[in-house]
Amino acid sequence: MNKLRIGFFDFTGCEGCQLTVLNLEDEFLELLELVKIVEFREVMSGACERLDIAFVEGSICTPGEAERLRAIRAKATTLVALGACADTAGVNALGHFRDLRELRREIYGGEHPPALTDIPRPLNAIVPVDHRLPGCPIDGREFLAVLQALLLGQPPQLPTFSVCVE
Ligand code: SF4
């Protein structure tokens, strides 16, 4: 059986969503029976040419990140936004309420802080996103449910939660 080739990629975020995946431990190891992890900076080096599913964490805050995201999109059949930063720009979107020059100086110091785009953006502002897995961080069981559905060739169904109690 040909295993699906999957990869994990990160942009601006705290990496808590990737950590949630790694914390699945036994379930994560069982996954290796079904998939081949071809790129995952947190646990391995090297880059792949093609992959079936790209799980992408983090929001896009620099022109370089946008370029790298386009390259991931070009080599992935399916792209999943992993967590709130990727899905909605998450906590990084708080930067919208601050002067970016001042914020850059505050965080990085120095005369030449790194360039940021004017707005931290979710993935779907740059490339088409096939599926989303919200949460800050993501829920490990939901990650497994999404991956299982994709392995079966089905559209992932996320549970819906009501915030209102009747
Ligand atoms: Fe971290 Fe939350 Fe962003 Fe995930 S969504 S990378 S846990 S800040």
From TrEMBL:
<dbReference type="GO" id="GO:0016491">
    <property type="term" value="F:oxidoreductase activity"/>
</dbReference>
<keyword id="KW-0574">Periplasm</keyword>
<keyword id="KW-0560">Oxidoreductase</keyword>
<keyword id="KW-0830">Ubiquinone</keyword>
<protein>
    <submittedName>
        <fullName>NADH:ubiquinone oxidoreductase</fullName>
    </submittedName>
</protein>
<feature type="domain" description="NADH:ubiquinone oxidoreductase-like 20kDa subunit">
    <location>
        <begin position="14"/>
        <end position="150"/>
    </location>
</feature>
<dbReference type="GO" id="GO:0042597">
    <property type="term" value="C:periplasmic space"/>
</dbReference>
<dbReference type="GO" id="GO:0051536">
    <property type="term" value="F:iron-sulfur cluster binding"/>
</dbReference>
